[in-house]
Amino acid sequence: MVKNYFLIILLLLSVSVSAQNIWRAQLIREDGHVIVFNFEVTTINQKPVIYIINAAERIKVDKIKRTRDSIFIQMPVFESQFKAKIISNKKWEGVWIKGGAVKDAVIPFVAEVSDKRFDINQSSKQNISGKWAATFKNAKGVEEPAIAEFQQKGNIISGSVLTTTGDYRYLSGSLNGDTLSLSTFDGGHAFLFSAIVNNDHSITNGKFYSGITFSQDWFAEKNENPVLPNSSAMFLRAGEERLNFRFPDLNNKMVSINDARFKNKVVRSG
Asked: 179-185 and 57-61: which strand pairing?
C-alpha cells in the first residue's frame, strides 16, 4: 500500500510539472484583438528549447538567449524575434518584432503558463467537421473563394483554410457554444479566425485577422465537394507586404531576403 501511495504521488507530480511547461502567448493588435498560440518550454542537452504548437504542428525554436531578467527568442526561417522581460517564472511581457520591407512591425506580447488556447465555458452547439465553401471579402467588397476543412472533438477544433494563393497552415482553437475561434503562429504569420456557427451548414459573421493591422470578413457554407478557380498568377498572402524569410547558407551563416545586398535586385530561388 505504501509503495502504491508513493507511485501515485510521483505520477501527480509528473503531471503537474508537464502542465507547467505549456504556455499561452498573446499578440495584442492595434485594434485590441488578440492572436493567441501555445508553446512548450523544455530543455535538450541542457539548453532551452521552445516548441510552437499549432494543432498537430510543432515548430522547434532553439535560438534562445537569457540575460538577467530578459529573454530573446529568434524564430527560425522567418525574420522575426521576441524580446521579453521575465516578470516571473510563469509570465513574460515584451514584443514580437517582424522584419518588414520599409520598417519592422512591432506587436506587444504577453505569455503566461497555461495549456488553454481560448476560453471554453459552454458545450459546443454544433459539429463542424468536414469541408466548407468559404468566402472572404476584402475592404473593397471583392469576394475571394476558399475551402475550409475542420476536425472537431468536443469543443476542440483543428483544420486549415485553402485559398487560390496558398493555405493558412495548421489552425487550432475551439467552438465555445456557437462561437468559433481559431489561430496559428509560425514566426512569420500570425492569424486569428472568429465566426458564429449558426447550424451544421452555415457559418457567418466571420472575421479574419492577420498580423498587426490586416482584417477581412468571411463566411462559409457546408460543402463536401468545394472547388477553387484555377489561377496561374502568384500573389502574396492576404495581409502580407512582401516575402520575408531567413535561413542558413552552406557555411551556416544566416541569409535574409532583407539583407542589403539584395536591395533593389531581382531574387529568385532554384
From this structure: unpaired
List the 91-98 sheet strands across, edge first. 57-61, 47-54, 34-44, 22-28, 105-113, 91-98, 80-88, 70-74, 63-67
**Type of residue at 48:** P
Between CA 259 and CA 128 the distance in angstroms is 44
Let me know if residue 52 belongs to a domain.
yes
CATH code at 67?
2.40.128
The pLDDT value recorded for residue 254 is 57
What domain range includes position 71?
2-113
Q: What pLDDT, in 10s, does the model give residues 57-111?
A: 999 999 999 998 999 999 998 999 999 999 999 999 999 999 887 889 999 999 9
Q: How many domains does the chain have?
A: 1
pLDDT by residue (tens digit) across 2-59?
A: 444 333 333 333 333 344 699 999 999 999 999 999 999 999 999 999 999 999 999 9
**Distance of alpha carbon 148 from alpha carbon 195, whole angstroms:** 13
Q: Is 53 helix (H, G, I), strand (E, B) or coil?
A: strand
Residues near 37 by beta carbon (within 8 Å), at least 6 away in sequence = 24, 25, 27, 52, 53, 54, 117, 172, 183, 184, 185, 190
The enclosing H or E element of 110 equals strand 105-113
Asked whether residue 118 is assigned to any structural domain, the reply reads: no
